[in-house]
């Protein structure tokens, strides 16, 4: 008796070879979670790594693999902007137009790129190379204005550097981000990494740039002043200034922060009258009167 082909069990239109490969990867994703449906987010990245977006077949495949309905899968795929519902370019060029980047030139960069590429937000150039997007804050405000290419950082951009960047991408050149990996990879490649399949490049490059480290030094200097002459220079193991390591500057292992310390309002001991009397106003110290009920007699 011959085994039933994988394609016979699936409502998708993937050919047998692609489906068999997807099923093997999906089995790995499912095995990472006690409840298989928890694997939906990486599995959506997986189908993007094959189709270049979350296709109809990708939706059906995820639903079949995780015993969900196509509607449930679609609800998740349409919620997150990293999942694309139409074919994406080889490179997603995301211009941060959130507040800080916008005032530092992000809006001008987006407008220039839009003119240069002839596309608007969430549109792809005719050659299929670039999908242009406005993106929200990338937590890289100290490098504003920031452009992301397939979620790699390009810091301190200008309209000129950004157009040069897209020209080089369209010409097929290897392009290195400011921080992180040694070069930008394709959308499909990155999608597979986001699905949890390591490409061995996570440790490439530096993570923290000079503006972030300057902030760290200022914070340490302020801490030294606050703690006075006795505390200055004696605040225990610290994270190194360089790329993140598991050891501090002096080689000592980092100490995990304790939870439930004095910063935690949920954990702290009552110290003020209002802590024990919920009706007491913190500002006046007076106990707030019960609100009068409408129509209540004096
Ligand atoms: S506002 Fe652009 S990275 Fe934060």
TrEMBL record:
Residues covered by region (Disordered): 222-298
Record-linked InterPro entries: NuoE_dom, NuoE_N, Thioredoxin-like_sf
Keywords, in A-Z order: Iron, Iron-sulfur, Metal-binding, Oxidoreductase
EC number: 1.6.5.11
One annotated GO molecular function: oxidoreductase activity
Source domain of life: Bacteria
PANTHER family per UniProt: NADH DEHYDROGENASE [UBIQUINONE] FLAVOPROTEIN 2, MITOCHONDRIAL (PTHR10371:SF3), NADH DEHYDROGENASE UBIQUINONE FLAVOPROTEIN 2, MITOCHONDRIAL (PTHR10371)
Protein name: NADH-quinone oxidoreductase subunit NuoE
Lineage of the organism: Bacteria, Bacillati, Actinomycetota, Actinomycetes, Micrococcales
């Amino acid at each position: 008796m011959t085994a039933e082909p994988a394609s016979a069990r699936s409502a998708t239109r993937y050919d047998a070879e692609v489906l068999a490969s997807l099923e093997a990867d999906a089995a790995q994703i499912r095995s990472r979670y006690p409840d298989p449906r928890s694997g939906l987010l990486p599995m959506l990245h997986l189908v993007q790594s094959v189709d270049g977006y979350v296709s109809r077949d990708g939706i059906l495949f995820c639903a079949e693999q995780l015993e969900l309905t196509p509607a449930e899968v679609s609800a998740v795929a349409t919620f997150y902007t990293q999942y694309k519902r139409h074919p994406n370019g080889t490179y997603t060029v995301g211009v941060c137009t959130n507040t800080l980047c916008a005032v530092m030139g992000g809006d001008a960069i987006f407008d220039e790129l839009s003119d240069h590429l002839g596309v608007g937000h969430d549109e792809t150039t005719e050659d299929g190379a670039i999908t242009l997007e406005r993106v929200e804050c990338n937590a890289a405000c100290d490098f504003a204005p920031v452009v992301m290419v397939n979620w790699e950082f390009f810091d301190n951009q200008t309209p000129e550097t950004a157009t040069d960047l897209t020209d080089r991408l369209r010409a097929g050149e290897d392009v290195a981000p400011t921080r992180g990996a040694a070069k930008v990879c394709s959308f499909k490649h990155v999608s597979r990494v986001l699905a949890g399949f390591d490409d061995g490049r996570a440790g490439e490059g530096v993570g923290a740039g000079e503006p972030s480290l300057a902030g760290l030094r200022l914070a340490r200097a302020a801490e030294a002043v606050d703690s006075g002459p006795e505390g200055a220079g004696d605040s225990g193991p610290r994270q190194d200034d360089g790329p993140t390591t598991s050891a501090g500057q002096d080689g000592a292992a980092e100490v995990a922060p304790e939870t439930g310390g004095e910063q935690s309002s949920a954990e702290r001991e009552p110290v003020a009258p209002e802590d024990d009397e919920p009706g007491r106003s913190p500002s006046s110290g007076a106990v707030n009167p019960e609100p009068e009920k409408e129509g209540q007699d004096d």
